[in-house]
């Protein structure tokens, strides 16, 4: 039986209950907002971190949805306080939202630290907002629930189903090859994003919300509920009710997150052939919880976990289909033999208890363990002289002929050079070439933009080529596909071996052997690395300057070096 905390022990009571001049000030200012002391005194104060903005279509419903969370908090006997935070709209924020993930994480941690709150509901979902809000809340270690925005409706164009991102890349390649008319292209533009909510492919957004549920940080089944489904506001109110109980019972993330809960997240990541971005985010999230997670952990888990979620970009269906097929609880239930079912979750029950009664209603969308969508692993981590600290790829999303390939390098030193040259009819390139983009990593980007799915040169598109081996120190969108080797670490900008590649050097990849090598003698590579100088940082000023000075490399999660670990700062003085 959990010992229920007393009102006087609530963190917020330090602000509101003190019989001194400051306590007077806090109470009178709460009353200034129209509340009576009965509304807030002695009650759990729930922060609702709302990542709504006018320019985040994935979170458009959060402006109203927050009212459902508040309803739940009030029903539970708590006092809700909405705290807006940076929205990080994946499509609109430039140069990349990844530049700001750690800023949002800091904002969440500091919002919680400086205000009179006892626990938090985190409202996120669009790519970076999930890891960012979770990282900040884990570092603050107050009771927390993650409320996922939910995927948008299926895309529909001229009788065909189309998926966020994945089908854009696919149809763009066909348009470049001259196979799609302007009119059809406009129809796709109007039909691919039909409602509020996050991308409805298994891109970074759904990957992150599913693995956050697997970690035990969301209510059971929350991560697959479509944004427009009436179950979504009901789940939101349930988050409000549950967080109040969690505060009374002092259920903090440190009591939920263990090495084993992160192993559960790895299993889910692999079973859904999840976004490569999740590798960076999960390592960073684990770092905040004091759990050491390595690139090898992802590879080891991938070798034993079948890909059973048949969702684009690796499979056929979309998130709405997934939810109707049974959703996240059904998927986790099928994966039970691989999961640590006794791990605690924020529901107050174990992961296994959360899954009781979960059923699959469509065996093509959520496959049985013996009928995976592919015999190829969802994620592979490669090492070699070109990536001593590792790099990643999604073999299931690549053409099979490229999984073992040797070809000459065609090197681009930055994105602009690549964009200028790639469609030049005179570009000296064959389908066997290995396209390389460098200086696009955490420091070089800066912020490691999603440039890793380098475009196929137009002259090769016209010849029917749709995939080539591509290598970069960048990331790629979770909705992307192709033989793209990403996150090469250390990155070129800080002197990694990628900086030593010259046009025409032979590069060899063998995914089965998990190797990536530059076929140039080691002494030559060393000599080139010592003589190459990296371009100056784009800015030393402001946040970008701080980012480039403190961001860690991709294999370490790209957190700031001063935010890693479990040190919990002292509570603010109240004077
Ligand atoms: Fe927001 Fe994809 S753009 S989830
Ligand atoms: Mg994305």
Automatic annotation (TrEMBL):
<keyword id="KW-0408">Iron</keyword>
<dbReference type="Pfam" id="PF00920">
    <property type="entry name" value="ILVD_EDD_N"/>
</dbReference>
<dbReference type="InterPro" id="IPR052352">
    <property type="entry name" value="Sugar_Degrad_Dehydratases"/>
</dbReference>
<dbReference type="Pfam" id="PF24877">
    <property type="entry name" value="ILV_EDD_C"/>
</dbReference>
<feature type="domain" description="Dihydroxy-acid/6-phosphogluconate dehydratase C-terminal">
    <location>
        <begin position="364"/>
        <end position="558"/>
    </location>
</feature>
<keyword id="KW-0479">Metal-binding</keyword>
<feature type="domain" description="Dihydroxy-acid/6-phosphogluconate dehydratase N-terminal">
    <location>
        <begin position="43"/>
        <end position="354"/>
    </location>
</feature>
<dbReference type="InterPro" id="IPR056740">
    <property type="entry name" value="ILV_EDD_C"/>
</dbReference>
<dbReference type="InterPro" id="IPR020558">
    <property type="entry name" value="DiOHA_6PGluconate_deHydtase_CS"/>
</dbReference>
<dbReference type="InterPro" id="IPR037237">
    <property type="entry name" value="IlvD/EDD_N"/>
</dbReference>
<protein>
    <submittedName>
        <fullName>L-arabinonate dehydratase</fullName>
        <ecNumber>4.2.1.9</ecNumber>
    </submittedName>
</protein>
<comment type="similarity">
    <text>Belongs to the IlvD/Edd family.</text>
</comment>
<dbReference type="InterPro" id="IPR042096">
    <property type="entry name" value="Dihydro-acid_dehy_C"/>
</dbReference>
<dbReference type="GO" id="GO:0004160">
    <property type="term" value="F:dihydroxy-acid dehydratase activity"/>
</dbReference>
<dbReference type="InterPro" id="IPR000581">
    <property type="entry name" value="ILV_EDD_N"/>
</dbReference>
<keyword id="KW-0411">Iron-sulfur</keyword>
<keyword id="KW-0456">Lyase</keyword>
């Amino acid at each position: 039986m959990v010992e229920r905390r007393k009102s006087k022990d609530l963190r917020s009571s330090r602000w509101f209950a003190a019989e001194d001049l400051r306590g007077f000030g806090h109470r009178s200012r709460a009353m200034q907002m129209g509340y009576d002391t009965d509304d807030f005194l002695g009650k759990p104060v729930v922060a609702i971190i709302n990542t709504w903005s006018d320019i985040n279509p994935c979170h458009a419903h959060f402006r109203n949805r927050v009212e459902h969370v508040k309803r739940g908090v009030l029903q539970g006997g708590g006092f809700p306080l909405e705290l807006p935070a940076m929205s990080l709209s994946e499509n609109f924020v430039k140069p990349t939202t990844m530049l700001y993930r750690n800023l949002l994480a800091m904002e969440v941690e500091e919002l919680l630290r400086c205000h009179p709150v006892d626990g938090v509901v985190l409202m996120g979902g669009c790519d970076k907002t999930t890891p960012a809000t979770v990282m900040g809340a884990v570092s603050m270690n107050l009771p927390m629930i993650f409320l996922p925005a939910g995927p948008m409706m299926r895309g529909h164009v001229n009788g065909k189903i189309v998926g966020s991102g994945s089908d854009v890349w696919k149809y763009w390649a066909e348009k470049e090859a001259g196979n799609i008319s302007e009119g059809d292209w406009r129809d796709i533009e109007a039909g691919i994003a039909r409602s509020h909510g996050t991308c409805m492919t298994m891109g970074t957004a759904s990957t992150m919300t599913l693995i956050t549920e697997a970690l035990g940080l969301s209510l059971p089944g929350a991560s697959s509920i479509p944004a427009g489904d009436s179950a979504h506001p009901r789940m939101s109110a349930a988050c409000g009710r549950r967080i109040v109980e969690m505060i009374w019972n002092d259920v903090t993330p440190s009591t939920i997150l263990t090495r084993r809960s992160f192993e559960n997240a790895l299993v889910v990541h692999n079973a859904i052939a999840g976004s490569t971005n999740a590798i960076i985010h999960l390592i960073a999230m684990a770092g905040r919880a004091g759990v050491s997670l390595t690139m090898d952990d992802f590879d080891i888990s991938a070798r034993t976990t079948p890909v059973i979620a048949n969702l684009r970009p690796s499979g056929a269906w979309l998130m709405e289909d997934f939810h109707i097929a049974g959703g996240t609880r059904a998927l986790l239930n099928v994966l039970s033999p691989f999961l640590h079912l006794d791990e605690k979750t924020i529901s107050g029950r174990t992961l296994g208890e959360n899954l009781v009664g979960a059923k699959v209603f469509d065996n093509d969308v959520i496959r049985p363990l013996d009928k995976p969508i592919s015999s190829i692993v969802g994620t592979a981590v490669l090492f070699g002289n070109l990536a001593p600290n590792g790099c990643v790829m999604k073999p299931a999303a690549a053409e099979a002929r490229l999984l073992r390939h040797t070809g000459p390098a065609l090197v681009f030193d930055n994105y602009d050079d690549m964009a200028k040259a790639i469609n030049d009819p005179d570009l000296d390139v064959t389908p066997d070439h290995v396209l390389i983009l460098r200086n696009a990593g955490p420091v070089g980007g800066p912020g490691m933009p999603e440039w890793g799915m380098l475009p196929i040169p137009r002259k090769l598109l016209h010849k029917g080529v749709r995939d080539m081996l591509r290598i970069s120190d960048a990331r790629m969108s979770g909705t992307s596909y192709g033989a793209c080797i990403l996150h090469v670490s250390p990155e070129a900008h800080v002197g990694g071996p990628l900086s030593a590649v010259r046009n025409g050097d032979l590069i060899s990849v063998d995914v089965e052997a998990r190797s990536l090598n530059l076929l140039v003698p080691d002494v030559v590579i060393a000599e080139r690395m010592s003589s190459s100088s990296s371009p100056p940082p784009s800015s030393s000023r402001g946040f970008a300057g701080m980012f480039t000075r403190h961001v860690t490399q991709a294999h370490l999660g790209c957190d700031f070096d001063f935010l890693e670990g479990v040190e919990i700062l002292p509570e603010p003085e109240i004077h």
